[in-house]
Amino acid sequence: MLPNQPALLDETDRKLYTLLALRELGGCTHTQLLYFMFENDIMSYFDLALALHELVDEGQLVRTNHPLDYLYAPTSAGLETLSFFINRLPHSKVVLICDRAPAWKQRFQREKQYAAKVTQNASGEYVVQLNLVEGNVARLSIDLPVPEHAMAERMARRWPECAGKVYQQLLKALCEENE
Q1: In contact, 21 and 37? CB cutoff 8 Å
Q2: 112: closest CA among 54, 171, 164, 70?
Q3: pLDDT tens for each residue of 87-111
Q4: Residue 1 — very low, low, confident or very high, per pLDDT cuts 50/70/90?
Q5: How many Å apart are CA 77 and CA 112, to the nearest integer?
Q6: Contact (CB, 8 A) for 170 and 154
Q7: With contact defined as beta carbons under 8 Å apart, do 101 and 24 qualify?
Q8: pLDDT at 114 over 90
Q9: Helix axes 149-175, 91-113, angle to 10 degrees
Q10: Do 165 and 172 contact (CB within 8 A), yes or no?
Q11: At CA 108, angle to CA 107 and CA 113, rounded to 5?
């Protein structure tokens, strides 16, 4: 059985919720924003997809490239629109978004800095794509082929805690003089 989806919202509400969430969370990928919205029972996948598309087209959001995926962030026009119409949203939902966003923001920043993704290539081999990102620049990108999906997922999960050590070891090995 699928979890209950939040009720579909009208156009204005879905845009305002999206602008508010992005104001509080900072730049996010579609997937990150979806997790936040769905887990907090704010909006459905369909409402979010529509809102992102509409807000980008209207210049209320900007979509930028990032090694993890595209990031969405409100423009000054989007923040101005939000400030004019935020009182249209139920106060309880505004408080919920503002209260829960800091923990999610911290998680999302970590995900953006230590991006890890598992894919499967044409030959059936799993590939762990690991990135160490500063700002919007990948400082280190590694694609590691592995034979098993479980191993690939474990490596992707451990990347955030090991990325710094891997980077230091790589620099040390590459910068050492042979004696």
Answers
A1: yes
A2: 70
A3: 999 999 999 999 999 999 998 988 8
A4: very low
A5: 25
A6: no
A7: yes
A8: no
A9: 60
A10: no
A11: 100
Half-sphere exposure (CA, 13 Å, Cβ side) for 80? 5
- Please measure the distance between the N-terminal and C-terminal CA atoms of the chain and give it in whole angstroms: 64
Question: Which pairs from 159-162 meet CB under 8 Å and 24+ separation?
Answer: 159/114, 159/116, 159/128, 159/130, 160/110, 160/111, 160/113, 160/114, 160/116
DSSP 72: E
For residue 111, what pLDDT is reported?
82
Cα separation of 105 and 82, whole Å? 19
Q: How confident is the model at residue 137, as a pLDDT?
A: 79
CA angle in degrees (0–180, nearest 5) for 160-44-84: 95
Q: Is 84 buried (19+), middle (13-18) or exposed (0-12) by CB count in 10 A?
A: exposed
Asked whether the beta carbons of 6 and 42 are under 8 A apart, the reply is: yes
Report which of 142, 136, 137 is spatially closest to residue 159, judged by C-alpha positions: 142
Mean pLDDT of 5-34: 89
Predicted TM-score (pTM) of this structure = 0.74
Calpha distance 108→110 (Å, rounded): 5
- What CA–CA distance (Å, rounded) separates 112 from 13? 28
24 in Cβ contact with 97 (< 8 Å): yes
